[in-house]
Design goal:
single chain; 347 residues; alpha/beta; 434 Repressor (Amino-terminal Domain); Rossmann fold
């Protein structure tokens, strides 16, 4: 089948080839009316840009690298959805780079990958967003990058962040208002600094609580189902045991629910369970998980837009913050009346 040319698109839309190029590349200096006209013709003709020709003309590869490595596959799926949509809309190709088992070779392997793919820029997800060796190497090599929910500042950073601390506080306030006074908290991976803000928020809620005495019992997790399972076992072996457990991500919360079922505990009648992220599985497990919805797709899409602007040399804000939202489902409920969690236990 003959390839449709950019000239045919321009003639059909009644614009210049340069205008078509600007629309395809997502450049800002095109009116909305012209943009809609060109996009309509592109769709009608099923026009596909010649990436190799674009690359030779611009000196760019139109490749965006994505550095990822997370035990939560649902989280990664959401990020990929957001990145791919923006890349497709702006004529870029996503080239993922997975970090598992690279160890001390991570930085060198990443730089080699970027060079091999001739990537125009790099997107990073936690915990790599806070890896000082990676950040310094990218600066040294002059690689444009954008970070998704980092937990620390970086002088040359372009970041998209969320309201993790406020969300952690909101969830614990919800449990306190349900009458829970012994609340377990399963912390996220220690290298995932943004997750530490969720613990900070949970502790804020306990400190600021003006009702009967309450406590937060913290156990370390690693963002995985299995670590949630193990931490839940430790918490549920306590006397008195927590009447609610808040996990710093949904995968660990799923582990808590599984452990509760294994022990014959009913959720939420005997144990309330809450998570963080609102992953694809959260509404579909039994009972549906009360959680904090993190706008994962939007986070990734916004980070991609910021990176493309940086590649083009456009002026952009160094940080964009997107809000989380509380989602109540059936996994949390009032404290059991027959559970030994009387206020006297903490006074």
């Amino acid at each position: 089948m003959r390839r449709v040319t950019i000239g045919e698109v321009a003639r059909r839309a009644g614009v210049s080839r340069k205008t078509v190029s600007r629309v395809i590349n997502g450049e800002a200096n095109v009116s909305d009316e012209l943009r809609r006209r060109v996009e309509k013709v592109v769709e009608q003709l099923n026009y596909k840009p010649d990436r190799q020709a674009r690359s030779l003309r611009s000196g760019k590869s139109f490749h965006i690298a994505f550095l990822y490595g997370s035990p939560s596959s649902y989280y990664v799926i959401g990020l990929l959805e957001g990145i791919r949509k923006v890349c497709t809309d702006h004529g870029y190709q996503l080239v993922p780079f997975e970090t598992e088992d690279l160890g001390s070779r991570l930085v060198m392997s990443l730089l080699e990958f970027i060079e091999r793919e001739r990537a125009d820029g790099l997107l990073m997800m936690p915990p790599m967003t806070d890896n000082l060796q990676i950040l310094a190497a990218l600066d040294d090599e002059g690689v444009p990058f954008a970070r998704i929910t980092p937990g620390s500042l970086w002088p040359n950073g372009v970041d998209v962040v969320t309201t993790d601390r406020a969300a952690g506080s909101e969830m614990v306030e919800h449990l306190l208002e349900l009458g829970h006074r012994h609340i377990g908290f399963i912390a996220g991976h220690p290298n995932h600094l943004a997750m530490a803000a969720r613990l900070d928020g949970a502790q804020d809620a306990i400190r600021e609580w003006t009702g009967p005495p309450a406590e937060l019992i913290v156990r370390q997790g690693m963002n995985t189902f299995d670590s949630g399972l193990q931490a839940a076992g430790d918490l549920l072996d306590l006397t008195p045991r927590p009447t609610a457990v808040f996990a710093a991500n949904d995968d660990m919360a799923f582990g808590v629910i599984f452990e509760a079922h294994e022990r014959g505990l009913r959720v939420p009648d005997d144990l309330s369970v809450a998570g963080f992220d609102d992953t694809l599985l959260a509404p579909h497990i039994w009972p549906g998980l009360t959680t904090i919805r993190q706008p994962v797709v939007e986070l990734a899409g916004q980070a991609t837009l910021m990176l493309l602007s940086r590649i083009k040399g456009e002026a952009i804000e160094r940080e964009t913050k997107l809000a989380t939202s509380f989602v109540q489902r059936r996994s949390t409920g009032p404290v059991p009346a027959n559970t030994p969690t009387a206020d006297s236990d903490l006074s």
